[in-house]
Amino acid sequence: MAYILHLESSTSICSVALAQDGLLIDMQESSEGQNHARLLSVFAEDLLKRNKLTANNLAAIAVSEGPGSYTGLRIGVSLAKGLCYVNQLPLIAVSPLQAMAEQVIQRKNELQLALTENTILIPMIDARRMEVYTAAYDTSNAEIRSVSSEIIDENSFADDLKEHQLLFFGNGADKCASTINHSNATFVNDIQTSAQFMCSLAWKAFQNNQFVDLAYFEPFYLKDFIAGKPQKNILHS
Known about the structure:
Shape: globular
Strand content: 25-35%
Number of helices: 5
């Protein structure tokens, strides 16, 4: 029996989840805006108390690694590292983009989505103007294209849209709906970053001993990437 505490602070959503053996047992989150410095540690403490646990009972800490908000990521990783150092716990890094893809997969029936082998999942986190942080995943949540920073225009994903159903979601996708116009482009609403959808990904990493180096791990800010247009074909990038 392994308890893992999950911290998500890559966007304006401040979210903490507690899972046992990969299954969510409790969570707390706020969408009030950038209140991570005030709320993240409080949420973590509340969850542990509410479930009659202490940090000593945890098997690991999972944290959103980025990309996303510079300040939010810094706060989340700092808290995660502090908990790990004090309690001698391993640290698991989870991509918020992959966690959003996991959310779509888990909620496909609720969202009335027909996911097929021809479907590609495109999570997007808002960056600035028409720029987004994005990646691509298949319907088993295997990465097709690694994380990148892209500037969206009317030609974005054009080649892939000719042959595949692309699902766009996340707060970055909201501003792209009027720009990407194709019959194979579907924009899925109500998909935001949330710690609860980190649970299965973190549990898989935990079982495979996929921990990051606590001393050297830093958030994936994506600051050094030069924004450009999306690659023409996701499956051949």
